[in-house]
Amino acid sequence: MHVRQAMLADGVGLQQQRQSCPVDDAKRVQLIGAMRDALTQFARQGRLAAAVYFSWGGHPGEAGSTVFRCGALTDAGKLALSPM
Known about the structure:
The chain has 84 residues and is mainly α. It has one domain. The chain contains three helices and two strands. β1 (68-69) and β2 form a beta hairpin. The two termini are 19 Å apart.
């Protein structure tokens, strides 16, 4: 899935609005995986030294796009922060 298409289809990008625990992070894992796939070729070519994942979600544990939910780093957060 192309990253832009996936984000447009989702309507909210990488946000996770559900506040229940455990976090249902499957859609964000898919989107972050697609984003990493798109950047991997540049990293392999030495054209990408770093990629920054940031969250406007506020404080850890709050609902929204934060990667730390329910007392732990989400699966999407683990993927986003792992080396390429």
